[in-house]
């Protein structure tokens, strides 16, 4: 769990910094890191290396005005974590709020993230919220 907390702290430090210096990411991300985002999202693909992680964070920041998690649960080992939570996102383009289950498999090497594979509950819902301005100010929420 410490690795995950450090990763979140580093992400926040990077996004809050004016320079967006990639050196900040070295505290939590392996130089050979890769994140596999689903093809159905606007920031799809394999984001590789520290420049890739920086690009992914910037792409997500351009897509969502708010991202938050709740009910974070982790299981696994120092090499592999299985993470689940509820993800809250607000589309920057439409203002639509999204709340849905989210899971991720994270692999670590020497305490640094080397691979991440996220699983969004409903990427079609996310894509619709990003493009459908007729539902601005509404919430697309998953019910438990």
UniProtKB/TrEMBL annotation:
Pfam families: SnoaL_2. Coiled coil: none annotated. Residues 18-115 form the SnoaL-like domain. InterPro entries: NTF2-like_dom_sf, SnoaL-like. This is Nuclear transport factor 2 family protein. It comes from Agrobacterium tumefaciens. The lineage of its organism: Bacteria, Pseudomonadati, Pseudomonadota, Alphaproteobacteria, Hyphomicrobiales.
